[in-house]
Amino acid sequence: MASGKAVIRARPWAVASFLLPALLLLGALVLYPIGYSVWRSFFDASGDDFVGLDNFAEIFANESTRTALRNNLIWIILAPTVATALGLIFAVLTERLRWATAFKLLVFMPMAVSMLASGIIFRLVYEQNPERGLANAVMTTVHDTFAGSSSWPDAEPRPGGSLSAQDDGSYLLDGTVSAGTPVLLPLVAVPQPELADAEPAATAASDPGQVTGTVWMDFTRGGGGTRDAIDADERALAGVTVQAVRDGDVVAEADTAADGTFTLPAEDADGAQLRLAASSFTPPYNGASWLGPELITPAIIGAYVWMWAGFAMVLIAAGLASVPRETLEAARVDGANEWQVFRRITVPLLAPILAVVTVTLMINVLKIFDLVYIIAPSSSQADANVLALQLYISSFGAEPDQGLGSAIAVLLLLLVVPVIIFNLRRLRRENQR
Predict the structure, then answer these.
(1) InterPro entries annotated for this entry (predicted)?
(2) Which residue pairs, CB below 8 angstroms and at least 24 apart, start in 42-51?
(3) Could you report the per-residue pLDDT of 150-166, keeping only the tens digit for each?
(4) Is the same domain home to 315 and 272?
């Protein structure tokens, strides 16, 4: 150290000549933009009138900026924590895998994908339509495995007909029914492709000891059919649950057969009202609204974690390789199980590395822009807003105000500085050990 100081004192011009290019580059690319942003933040949109701290006041008065601040807080808490936790789990698990190298390669591979490409990938993954969106395709497959879908989700009564829609999604027949008189329950609006395998509708038999009827699609393709009558080419709606309701209670129910007919016992259904159960008409399960206002921020954080969990895993695995194996083996010999070894020895020894990864990701998420801009559709982009995106919109949007944009940039800088100071102090303490 003393010899280095002696060189600096003996040849200051030589030292300055080596440092000058780097200092000029640092000043041009870092110091000047920071200084100009701070200066510009005190002026209005035109840059001519000095407004003082008005732009900073506008940040907290603007609803969009407050939403961005709230979302940034969510990002800072969730994204680094989840990415670091997954990286730690992957790093520990790969020590016990024979194909650890291949696993690490697969997990780290998303880091090679640009934010733009990742945003496009996850915009497709989160598509609402299960036929295009992978996430909802998986969700609907699992859901439909354990829960059956409704028979005819598109069917509905004809306006002005004998059936009326109820608040719970069921359809109620006006008036009561009598045994021996077949009941006609016509529905419409079922797409023709859904009727491709349906049988022709049949008129229910008249039986004095039973309440009978038919549920069918009251529409003749090409026209020419008779309203509220079963025509030759009209199709049955099988599997519809028909309920006999008396004083609000279901006293009998049956499902329609392949030809659309149903039968209810007269002792229960005679004089009751008929209701087509809502379960026969509920829309199919289409998964979650990933790109809607409620889930858009967690969904984008999921895309971020997919990219950066590999980064955390590689750094933590490097730190894990330096952990003394003797310490771990001694703990196992003393009777500690694997969870105790992990919680009381591995994690404390890896604390410096975990701090490095977490702080690095915290700085990174404060600057997040690409994923939010690409993944969030215009309908929910305001709900996914973050400070970097708000900076861009304020500076270059429909009503550009680079004074306000510069104020947001300064705010971002002020949010990053404490994290950087914490990281520098931690590094200094590590070097002094």
Answers:
(1) MetI-like (IPR000515), MetI-like_sf (IPR035906), UgpAE/MalFG_permease (IPR050809)
(2) 42/403, 43/403, 44/401, 44/403, 45/400, 45/401, 45/402, 45/403, 45/404, 47/402, 47/403, 51/403
(3) 779 889 998 888 999 99
(4) no
